[in-house]
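Q: Convert this sequence to structure tokens.
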Amino acid sequence: MKKILLTVFAVGLWLPLSAQNGTLVDGVAAVVGKNIVKYSDIERSYAQMRVRSGAGDAFKNRCAILENLILSQLLVHKGEVDSVEVSDDDVKQYLDYYLKADLRQYGSKEALREATGFTYDELKEQYERMIRNNLLSRRVEYQITENVKVTPAEVTTFFNSLPADSLPMMPERYELSEIVIEPAISEEERDRVRTELAGLRERVLKGEKFSMLATLYSQDPGSAKKGGELGFFSRGEMVGEFESAAFALKPGEVSPIIETQFGFHIIQLIERRGNTVNARHILIVPKVSSADLLKARMKLDSLATEIRGGHISFEDAARQYSTAKNAKQGGTVTNPNDGSGRFTADEVKERYFNVGLNGMDAGQISNAMSMKTEENRDAYRIVRLNKKHPAHKANLTDDYDNIYNAALVDAKQKYMREWARRQAKSTYIKLADEYCNCSFENLLINK
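A:
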């Protein structure tokens, strides 16, 4: 049976539909509760499907697209009934991205209309509707499936149900350990940063725009280009010191200097909305001295020599000298993508861009190399390749974590199918005449 794609499918709905002869007659293909699915929604997705996989059965493909769009609208309808919120700022973030991408692709608003058959404002309206619905349906789907779990027995049953010839080949993967030395920030450097921020705060209090100073001086690359603006956030989304300071402010008020694990900040509250606030900040990150970095590098090269000579184990050295969070675990590295202790070559390259594992054998240790911590601070580390897992066909012994994740996705999809069938029975759904002959795989609709 076909899997329910739901919001995963909707992610592919952003690209504009190239118009045929410059025009597109739009209309309502389906009504779901108080919401509609437009012909243009179907045609836009169908155009992308043809690019990816060819024409196939045009009517059947359009029916499959319509079914997924109805499923998404059922989630939207549920979200509206339950008053699930999507902020204007969340929508704007995606809206700006896609509109700018279109303008880069076509060069001007006039060329965009020529290529798509829609004016810039018409596309903006369509994108805004789709983005808001997509974000809403994602949140509702998460709420519906967040408590779905699978037991080890269910994982085994799922694996045994897979045809042997469909089991994927797993790429070569690696287990790693690391020792990190992040030099401490000197008190002189901390004072320098406090003095710089105090000067910026004073300039704001004297009338200069916080947003302009954030653009010029903030070292938070994500928010600096937006004048330091972070968008709306609720309690629990930011680190404690930052959050406490932000929620204590009144609109327009500027905080004293705040220290967090990321550096030093000043914060200005823009707006308070219910249990959320929108704020902007200026971040200055204190820097480690080049002399201290050199000492860290030399210490790690010395440790690597000691470990290779058998004078101390890698695990003991990690517990004794590493400043990383995994020091107590002997430096064992966990893959943040799946929670396992194994990395593909691409994942290793992403995390350790200057480690060449192809030339290393299991048990070998790298020389000291520079790195950035999670807080974007300079440090050095050495890495040990603990074990290589050769490429192989997936099995329960070596690939349990991957199979568990696949089983969990399958369980959530089954749960969503049952939810969608129940929801469809209690929700008003009406199809346009030309789609009444569609044979849906997951929905029973009174046509």
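Confidence is low (pLDDT under 50) at residues 1-24.
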